Amino acid sequence: MDPELVWLIGIVAVVVIVAVAAVLVARFALSSTKSEHRAAVLSGVAEVVRAIRGRR
Questions:
Q1: Of 10, 13, 28, 21, nearest in space to 51 by CA
Q2: How far apart are CA 25 and CA 28, in angstroms?
Q3: Upper half-sphere CA count for residue 37 (Cβ side, 13 Å)
Q4: pLDDT, tens only, 14-23
């Protein structure tokens, strides 16, 4: 297999895994949250996703 294709597949796989993880974390975090606390929970989830992506 072409090395460039392997790199491309690897990068796409990492992006998909991070996106799925972000959706699952948000879904589980919001499942038992009252409406008045949702903004704070989403801010926390955004911080976690940024940390996973390495921007923090």
A1: 21
A2: 5
A3: 8
A4: 889 888 888 8
Taking a C-beta distance cutoff of 8 angstroms, is the pair 1, 32 a contact?
A: no
Q: Are 50 and 16 in contact (CB under 8 A)?
A: no
Tokens of 49: 């996703």
Strands, DSSP E only, in the chain? none
pTM of the model: 0.65
Residue type, 44: G
How far does CA 30 lie from the centroid of its chain? 14
Report whether 21 contacts 28 (CB < 8 A): no
Contact in structure between 41 and 25 (CB atoms under 8 Å): no
